[in-house]
């Protein structure tokens, strides 16, 4: 990697930090960001449920809205990581709120039609105790791509435990080898792509 890269992650767990309970999404994001750190990527994580993310599809929904600050962190980072648990087979409601707020990018293009996320890479990390990881990836990837992010090959990692059982990702003694390999692939490909896009941004619409 020829240049310094940064990553910003939003943890879309339904658990608040005030609950003093580490979530499986925490651990998955820690593992993924640790893999990115091996390439020199500096990262930050924010738990979205502890922020006041007002409903809406604008970048600023007015007084008390915490989204503008988080939006700034997303735009400033080279790699955006969305972490979500599976609930009822879908990304969490918090993740959906984040995607809805990112919808504002569609109307914030520059003079070449490029959205704020153009040239940024996105990864999605999913955890749960039910089926739905691929569905969650598909929904999140499509939304993130729609608002300008580029998804690298193997840009998603996940762990899904046995259905209706009590073991969570955070309870595992070690990362299963297939999960570790997927995390390492996602990190490596994201860094490679982010480095290329930082050197040579998409040209956008030529006048």
From TrEMBL:
NADPH-dependent FMN reductase-like domain sequence ranges: 16-163
Pfam families hit by this protein: FMN_red
Cited InterPro entries: Flavoprotein-like_sf, FMN_Rdtase-like_dom
Protein name listed in UniProt: NAD(P)H-dependent oxidoreductase
């Amino acid at each position: 990697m020829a240049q310094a890269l940064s990553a910003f992650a939003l943890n879309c767990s339904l658990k608040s930090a005030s609950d003093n309970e580490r979530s499986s999404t925490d651990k998955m994001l820690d593992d993924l960001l640790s893999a990115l750190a091996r390439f020199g990527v500096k990262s930050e994580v924010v738990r979205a449920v502890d922020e006041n993310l007002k409903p809406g599809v604008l970048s600023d929904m007015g007084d008390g809205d915490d989204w503008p600050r988080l939006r700034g962190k997303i735009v400033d980072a080279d790699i955006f990581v969305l972490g979500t648990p599976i609930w009822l087979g879908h990304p969490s409601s918090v993740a959906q709120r984040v995607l809805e707020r990112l919808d504002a990018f569609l109307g914030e293009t520059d003079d070449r039609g490029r959205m704020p996320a153009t040239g940024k890479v996105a990864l999605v990390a999913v955890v749960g105790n039910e089926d739905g990881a691929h569905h969650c990836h598909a929904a999140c990837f499509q939304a993130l791509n729609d608002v300008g992010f580029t998804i690298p090959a193997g840009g998603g990692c996940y762990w899904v435990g046995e259905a209706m059982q009590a073991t969570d990702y955070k309870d595992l003694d070690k990362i299963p080898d297939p999960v570790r390999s997927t995390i390492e692939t996602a990190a490596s490909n994201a860094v490679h792509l982010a480095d290329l896009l930082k050197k040579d941004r998409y040209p956008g619409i030529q006048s």
